[in-house]
Every structure is written in structure tokens, then in C-alpha cells.
Write a structure and sequence with these properties.
This protein has 74 residues and is an all-alpha fold. The protein has helices at 15-20, 24-32, 40-44, 48-70. It is 58% helix and 0% strand.
Length: 74
């Protein structure tokens, strides 16, 4: 087929038009998504409870590593 013989497929979907009719929360979400994804640390410490759980895991991990290093092998 030549380029002049190809027919373009009609495209009826308009993202801008759909977002115009979307709720305000959706519009804000679409505008804020351009900022990029949050880092892993921000995700792990997003709320106070997440930060506390993350701190507990870090402390337990450090305790296990220190005790493993200090305990003599049998």
C-alpha cells in the first residue's frame, strides 16, 4: 500500500475533554502527577505510623546484626 492509499482510523477519544467533565479531585490528581513519583523513603515515612514501623524494623535489624557480630561462633 502506498501512503496516499492508507486511510486514517478515526480517533474519538479526547483525554482533555474527558478531564474537563471529571470531578475536581481527579483534575487535581492529574495535575499533580507531573511532579514524579515519591521516593522510597518518603513512601516508608508517609505517616507517623509508617515512620514508627520503619524505625522499629531498622532498630531490630541493627540489633540482630550487632548481636550476630558480637556472639562467638559455637
Amino acid at each position: 500500500m502506498k501512503d496516499s492509499e492508507k486511510k486514517e482510523i478515526p480517533f474519538y477519544y479526547s483525554r482533555a475533554r474527558r478531564l474537563e467533565r471529571a470531578p475536581l479531585e481527579v483534575q487535581r490528581l492529574m495535575n499533580s502527577s507531573n511532579q514524579g513519583k515519591p521516593s522510597l523513603f518518603k513512601t516508608l515515612t508517609a505517616s507517623r505510623s509508617h515512620a514508627f514501623l520503619f524505625l522499629a524494623i531498622v532498630i531490630l535489624s541493627l540489633t540482630i546484626m550487632v548481636l550476630t557480630y558480637l556472639m562467638p561462633l559455637r
